[in-house]
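subagent[fold] <- orchestrator: predict structure for attached chain, return tokens only, no commentary.
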Amino acid sequence: MEYVTDRITIDDKICNGKPTIRGKRITVQTILEFLSAGESKDEILKQYPSIEEEDITACLKFASQLMNRNYTIKTVA
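subagent[fold] -> orchestrator:
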């Protein structure tokens, strides 16, 4: 298991290698999708009692760090 931050982990044996919260089967993508749908942090914490508010903040920071990179679009086939 690789720790991307103290709360975000990547393990190819958990959720097909997607970034998860502290090795749990809750992906960063899931939390971001709830937030983008308008769910509040409190609503997410009720649905996932095993995570903490700091985990949700870590998901947002992780996504922000990904957007800080440069990307190139290449034509395939």
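orchestrator: received. Logging for downstream: The chain has a mean pLDDT of 93. Strands lie at 2-3, 8-10, 20-21.
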